[in-house]
């Protein structure tokens, strides 16, 4: 009965693509139509995990084994539109779907063999209450489902909110975030190969600070995976 009602509802009020907001989603399409998916600004980071602009940006702050983003973020571009929908239109399922697509690219190069677990960058408790979910956690769930890796939520907590990074030098950005993360159970991460998962990386300072907290707690090797990175 529930399936019949759902089919009837979709017939009367068909779901449209979150990308173009015009095409009606067909069977097998969850949030984006096939056309919009084909036009996503994908990177080739999965082929060059330690030889790309994102890796260089993060490696300026923290020692990494790899840094990879799925999409390139540009102002008013498709990646910005999708991230806005994830964060402000209550669409954690879109985060999971995009995470799974990124996972598909990484699986092509057997990336999962390099890792023990995925760790989402945490939100501050106040922001988590406001939004109701951590988008990075849902991206990690999508990645983990495809790669067959566990997602360790709650391993790191964000005990201080960070101020805006706009118009700050690289040193000022690092000083702004270097003490806002704390590893809750250091024994959990000791000797592990972990990938930190974030939604978007702009300056890289916040993500790197979270990664440094993991390394200082005993993480053996650290990667960073992001849904998008600014050019």
Automatic annotation (TrEMBL):
Belongs to the ComF/GntX family. The lineage of its organism: Bacteria, Pseudomonadati, Bacteroidota, Cytophagia, Cytophagales. This is DNA utilization protein GntX. It comes from Cesiribacter andamanensis AMV16. InterPro entries: ComF/GntX_DNA_util-trans (IPR051910), PRTase-like (IPR029057), PRTase_dom (IPR000836). CDD domains: PRTases_typeI (cd06223). It comes from the Bacteria. Gene3D superfamilies: 3.40.50.2020.
